[in-house]
Amino acid sequence: MGFDLENVKNVIESGNAVLGIEFGSTRIKAVLIGEDNAPIASGSHDWENRLENNIWTYTLEDVWAGLQDSYAKMAEDVKEKYGVVITKLGAVGFSAMMHGYMVFDEKDELLVPFRTWRNTMTEEASDKLTEVFDFNIPQRWSIAHLYQAILNKEEHVSEIRFQTTLAGYIHWKLTGEKVLGVGEASGMFPIDMNTGDYHARMIEQFDALVAEKNYSWKLGDILPKVLSAGEDAGVLTAEGAKLLDVSGNLQAGIPVCPPEGDAGTGMTATNSIAKRTGNVSAGTSVFAMVVLEKELSKVYKEIDMVTTPTGNLVAMVHCNNCTSDLNAWVSLFKEFAEAFGVEVDMNKLFGTLYNKALEGDDDCGGLLAYNYFSGEHITGFEEGRPLFVRMPESRFNLANFMRVHLFTALGALKTGLDILLKDEGVKLDKILGHGGLFKTKGVGQKIMAGAINVPVSVMETAGEGGAWGIALLASYMIRKEENETLDDYLTNKVFAGETGSEIAPDPADAAGYDKFIKRYKEGLTIERAAVDTLR
Questions:
Q1: Strand pairing category for 102-104 and 191-192
Q2: In terms of pLDDT, which residue wins out, 18 or 193?
Q3: Phi, psi (degrees; rounded to nearest 5) at 131
Q4: Is 90 exceeded by the pLDDT of residue 281?
Q5: At what angle do helices 507-522 and 443-452 cross, to 10 degrees?
Q6: pLDDT at position 464, please?
Q7: What is the pLDDT of residues 428-487, one digit of tens each?
Q8: How far apart (Å, rounded) are the C-alpha atoms in residues 271 and 492?
Q9: In what order do the strands lie in the sheet with 304-307?
Q10: What are phi and psi of 34, to 5 degrees?
Q11: Helix, strand, coil distribution of the chain in percent, nearest 5
Q12: pLDDT tens digits, residue range 144-186?
């Protein structure tokens, strides 16, 4: 991925640059790429979900303010670097956290506040739908939220005319099109691998399940249309252009690719959409995506079955908690240093503490921690309590303290992946890592390799994350050759020659992690006691 200032300037001025914007849990990021698919500008906006009436949510005002701010900062980055004002783009793509619940009435008004993926309040619906469909329906899936609202006899359900995800909502408001990319759609409702559309039998089963309610809608009527990567998903309307760019410089008519979820963009950004490959996205939450060669032998509550942006079968292990507790401890060390009058560089602090973890005992010196800020369905928790536990004889030092918090960041993930790799015998040639856990070179990567006993690679571009991934999907839509698959496009035109850095599993790390995970599973009774007691 070369760089030529004058060439980049010409690409932007001619309207051939491509934009991707992704709504992550804590940051909204806009990434602009050139004709060689390399990032040339970016902008971001920090945001946080709120717990209101025991529901994790973001307001629509949060959504639009964040979108506009991230775009404005990207446009300012372009102006500062290249002296160009963006008026045209080759294509745009929008992505966001998957799942959740957004429903609208006949006036296109949101009926209840957005319920995010983080909510674990749909257990009854999840269990019933899994039984009826003979297909695992996780609590955070959109269909579980819909059915739970029905079970709860929520009045708004009868008024629903459209249901979508956050990415689908943004795309709809900017293009007028009620569509979703197949990867994102597979987190709303099961997809039939043979048709690339919602599973018809399960649609009928759901309608039969709620028939006695006599709603004026059928499920197929309120879900977005499913599209595969590369398909036409509409263009930016005049109203949409103004919503995105409040300066008014951006023109309407720009092609927009199918909106995807953060799982699909993560696969794309790490070139892990081929069979026997996978990726791990580790930030506020953590999930692993493994592209399968065949279907699993049975249904597992811990494993989600979703798809790549092209519709291939993917086993997904999704955990609600990853780095939040770890980050809180690092912030405590920052506060400690500042109390002594020491000015702290956060990148250096993270790097120092993460690397300290590599000096710890293989099994973390007998320490135990749980990073559960919120519920964790993999281990059966509807609420979370961050917890640190040690025995009097545990080897309590800074290295082991940091090591156990890095280990526990992957504890629930390891529990789910063991089902795939050990129980089902799924073959994985490599895993690609991206997200905050991997920012400190080599540390998160080494611990991940030990946890799952598979080589872990991190690419130089992995830091760009899902915003770059959705930009690549938008680029593929307008630049692909006839019959060129997404896999071929990524391998030959985006990642050609880029191998990244790979770390093979260290037997000592793997053995130490196995000891830790045994302690982790046995100690879940302590976490349960904390949830039941600390209210």
A1: unpaired
A2: 18
A3: -65, -45
A4: no
A5: 70
A6: 62
A7: 988 998 888 998 999 999 999 999 999 999 877 655 678 999 999 999 999 999 999 999
A8: 11
A9: 304-307, 313-319, 286-291, 277-282, 430-434, 456-458, 501-503
A10: -90, -170
A11: 45, 20, 40
A12: 999 999 999 999 999 999 999 999 999 999 999 999 999 999 9
* pLDDT tens per residue across span 368-415: 999 999 999 899 998 999 999 999 999 999 999 999 999 999 999 999
The amino acid present at 471, given as its one-letter code, is A
- The residues with which 280 forms a beta bridge, in sequence order, are 288, 433
Beta bridge partners of 279: 289, 432
Scan for tokens 């020491």, then name that residue: 342
**Distance (Å, whole) CA 206 – CA 189:** 11
Angstrom distance (rounded) from CA 151 to CA 406: 39
CA–CA dist 137, 266 (Å, integer): 22
- The answer to whether 31 touches 466, Cβ cutoff 8 Å, is no
Helices (H), 233-298: 238-244, 262-269
Q: Taking residues 280-298, what's their average pLDDT?
A: 90
What's the full length of the chain, in residues?
535
CA 116 – CA 98 distance, rounded (Å): 8
Closest CA to 27 of 62, 61, 53: 62
Confirm if 517 and 411 have CB atoms less than 8 A apart. Answer: yes
The reported pLDDT for the residue numbered 1 is 43
Long-range contacts of residues 63-66, Cβ cutoff 8 Å, at least 24 apart: 63/23, 63/166, 63/169, 63/170, 64/243, 66/23, 66/28
Longest Cα–Cα distance of the chain, Å, equals 67
